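Hi R.,

As promised on Friday, here is the backbone we talked about, encoded as structure tokens. Could you run it through your design pipeline when you get a chance and send me back a sequence?
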């Protein structure tokens, strides 16, 4: 059975707070057994750095190991542009 969970970072996702976001996302991945979909709602994210991209990648890899997925939803235009330039739109599912 697939479970669905969501996470919503607000403001910036960068080196200053990447560890906190990574811990929170990994906790979501690890708190349930079996396949899961974690939706990361990016609608209130204004900035993402390479450290923030790494957080998303680490969470996606952890979810995949458990048979789940990470879906990025509702990114602002500037965030979507970063995801495309970095190739993350090819690695992770992005719902614009």
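Update: got your reply. Pasting your designed sequence below so it's all in one thread:
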């Amino acid at each position: 059975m697939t479970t669905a969970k969501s996470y919503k970072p607000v403001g910036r996702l960068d080196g200053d707070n990447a560890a906190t976001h990574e811990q929170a996302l990994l906790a979501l991945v690890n708190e349930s057994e079996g396949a899961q979909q974690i939706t990361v709602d990016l609608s209130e994210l204004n900035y993402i750095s390479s450290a923030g991209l790494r957080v998303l990648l680490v969470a996606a890899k952890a979810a995949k190991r458990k048979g789940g997925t990470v879906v990025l939803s509702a990114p602002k235009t500037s965030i979507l542009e970063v995801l495309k330039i970095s190739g993350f739109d090819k690695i992770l599912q992005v719902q614009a």
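One thing I noticed while checking it: Residues 3-95 form a domain with the Transcription Regulator spoIIAA fold (CATH 3.30.750.24).

Thanks again,
M.
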